C-alpha cells in the first residue's frame, strides 16, 4: 500500500528499539530509526547489483519530493546510468565549482604563501585583494574571468590615483591565475594579456637633502624638536643608522647588543629577507642607551603612542619633519638613506661597503652574493666617520669639507631609494 503524508507524520519509533520500514512502491520506502529519525530510501538494481539511494530526510523532504527523486532515479537506470554515480559526479562538479570561485582560490593561494611572508606583507596582499577585486570578481568562477573584466576592475584603482597599487594587484592576479592553472581550475591567465594596458607609473625619488649647507640646519631643527620623546629619538637616530623607515620603527630591543655596539636586524624584517648588521657609532649608542631607559622594558624600541604592543606609526617621522617645517618635497624619513648614500660616495668610501650598509642587492653575480658581515670592519669605521661628519655639520656654519676615509674606493653614486 502506498505511503501517505499522515502515515509518514505519525510513524513512531519501534518500542523494542528496532529499525523498521514503511514501503511506498517502486523500491521506495520510509526508514524509521529507533531515535525517531525518518529517511526516504530507494532500492534499485544496476548491472545486476542491488543498490540503495538516499532520497532525503522527512519532514525536510516531503513525500511528494521523495517520489519525484525516485522517478528521476528510475529514469537514469532505464538510460543505463547509475543514480549513485551520477550523484557523486554532480557533487564533485559542484565542489570544484565552489573551489574555483576567484575569492576562494585567492584565499587558498594566500594561505600557502603566508608562512614565507612577513605578517605585514601578508596583510597588505590580502587587503589589496579584498578591497579592490573581491567586490567585483570575488564570486565569479576564475575560469570565467576575462582580460577585459580584470582591466575594468584595475582601472577603478587607477582612477583614484593609485597607479602603483593597480600594477601590484595585477602582479598578484598573475600569481593567483597561474596557481589556478597548476591546480586544474583554469586554463589561461588573463592578466598576461594586460601587459602595457595599465597607465605607466611615474617614478619619483624620495625627497632628501644632500647639500651639506642644508643638512646642518636640518640636524639643528631635529635637536630642537619638542614633540613626543620617542619620536625625537627616532628623528635623531634616523640619519645615524640610515636604515629603511620600517626597519627603524619596528626595531625591538632583543635585536641590540649595546655592549658590542651592533644592531642585528632579523631576515624576516628585511626587504631582501637576509639578516642585516648595523654597526652603531658612538653617537648612536649614546642615544640608544638613553632611549633604553625610556622604553627598554618594552619589546619595541619605538612603541606606538596608543599602544606599547605595537610600533610607532609609519607616518610618525614624516609628520614630525612636517612639524619642523620641512615639506614633503623637501625631506622624508626615507630621505636619510639617500643623504648618506650620496655623501658617502662623494667622500670616497668603498661603494660595495656602502651598498652593504644600505642592505641593497646587486645584479652583479659576485657583488649580489649577500654576506651579512661583508665589509663589517670597513662599515664600522664608515658609520663612525659618518656620525662624526654629521656632528661637524650640526655645529659648523659654513659646513666643513668632508673628511676622506682611510681606505678609498672608486666613487660610485648609489640610489638609496631602491
Largest sheet: 4 strands, antiparallel
SS elements, strand count:
7
H/I helix tally:
16
The CATH class name of the largest domain reads Mainly Alpha
CATH topology of the largest domain: hpI Integrase, Chain A
Poorly predicted runs of 5 or more residues: 363-369, 407-418
Give the class from helix and strand content and strand pairing.
alpha+beta
Q: Give the fraction of residues assigned to helices.
A: 40-55%
Rg, alpha carbons: 34 Å
Within the largest sheet, what's the order of strands?
1-2-3-4
In a few lines, what is going on in this structure?
The chain is α+β, with helices and mostly antiparallel strands.
What is the element layout, followed by pairings?
Layout: H1 5-10, E1 20-25, E2 28-32, E3 38-46, E4 49-58, H2 63-78, H3 83-99, H4 102-113, H5 119-132, H6 134-137, H7 147-159, H8 163-182, H9 212-223, H10 229-241, H11 245-249, E5 256-257, E6 262-265, E7 276-279, H12 282-295, H13 316-323, H14 335-346, H15 351-357, H16 376-395
Helix pairs in contact: 4-5, 7-8, 9-16, 10-12, 10-13
Protein name: Integrase
Region (Disordered): 394-418
InterPro entries: CB, DNA_brk_join_enz, Integrase-like_cat_sf, Integrase_catalytic, Integrase_DNA-bd_sf, Integrase_DNA_bind_dom, Integrase_recombinase_N, Phage_int_M
Amino acid at each position: 500500500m502506498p505511503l501517505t503524508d499522515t502515515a509518514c507524520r505519525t510513524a513512531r519509533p519501534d518500542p523494542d528499539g528496532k529499525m523498521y520500514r514503511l514501503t511506498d512502491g517502486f523500491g521506495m520506502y520510509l526508514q524509521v530509526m529507533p531515535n525517531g529519525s525518518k529517511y526516504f530510501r530507494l532500492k534499485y538494481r544496476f548491472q545486476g547489483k542491488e543498490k540503495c539511494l538516499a532520497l532525503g530526510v522527512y519532514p525536510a523532504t516531503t513525500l511528494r519530493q521523495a517520489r519525484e527523486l525516485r522517478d528521476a532515479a528510475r529514469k537514469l537506470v532505464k538510460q543505463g546510468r547509475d543514480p549513485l554515480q551520477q550523484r557523486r559526479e554532480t557533487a564533485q562538479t559542484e565542489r570544484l565549482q565552489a573551489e574555483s570561485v576567484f575569492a576562494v582560490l585567492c584565499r587558498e593561494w594566500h594561505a600557502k604563501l603566508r608562512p614565507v611572508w612577513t605578517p605585514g606583507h601578508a596583510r597588505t596582499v590580502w587587503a589589496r585583494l579584498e578591497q579592490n577585486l573581491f567586490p567585483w570578481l570575488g564570486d565569479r568562477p576564475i575560469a570565467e574571468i576575462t582580460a577585459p573584466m580584470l582591466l575594468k576592475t584595475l582601472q577603478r584603482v587607477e582612477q583614484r590615483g593609485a597607479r602603483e597599487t593597480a600594477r601590484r594587484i595585477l602582479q598578484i592576479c598573475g600569481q593567483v591565475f597561474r596557481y589556478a592553472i597548476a591546480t586544474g581550475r583554469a586554463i589561461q591567465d588573463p592578466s598576461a594579456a594586460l601587459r602595457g594596458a595599465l597607465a605607466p607609473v611615474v617614478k619619483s625619488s624620495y625627497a632628501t637633502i644632500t647639500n651639506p649647507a642644508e643638512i646642518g640646519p636640518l640636524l639643528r631643527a631635529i635637536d630642537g624638536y619638542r614633540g613626543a620623546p620617542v619620536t625625537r629619538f627616532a628623528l635623531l637616530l634616523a640619519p645615524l643608522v640610515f636604515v629603511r623607515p620600517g626597519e627603524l620603527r619596528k626595531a625591538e630591543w632583543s635585536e641590540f647588543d649595546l655592549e658590542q655596539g651592533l644592531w642585528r636586524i632579523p631576515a624576516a624584517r628585511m626587504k631582501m629577507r637576509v639578516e642585516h648588521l648595523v654597526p652603531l657609532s658612538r653617537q648612536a649608542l649614546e642615544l640608544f642607551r638613553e632611549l633604553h631607559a625610556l622604553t627598554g622594558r618594552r619589546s619595541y624600541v619605538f612603541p606606538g603612542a596608543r599602544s606599547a604592543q605595537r610600533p610607532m606609526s609609519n607616518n610618525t617621522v614624516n609628520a614630525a619633519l612636517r612639524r619642523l617645517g620641512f615639506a614633503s618635497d623637501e625631506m622624508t624619513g626615507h630621505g636619510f638613506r639617500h643623504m648618506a648614500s650620496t655623501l658617502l660616495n662623494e667622500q670616497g668610501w668603498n661603494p660595495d661597503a656602502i651598498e652593504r650598509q644600505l642592505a641593497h642587492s646587486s645584479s652583479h653575480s659576485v657583488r649580489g652574493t649577500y654576506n651579512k658581515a661583508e665589509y663589517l670592519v670597513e662599515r664600522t669605521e664608515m658609520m663612525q666617520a659618518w656620525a662624526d661628519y654629521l656632528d661637524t655639520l650640526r655645529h659648523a656654519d659654513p659646513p666643513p669639507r668632508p673628511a676622506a676615509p682611510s681606505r678609498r674606493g672608486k666613487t660610485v653614486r648609489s640610489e638609496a631609494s631602491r
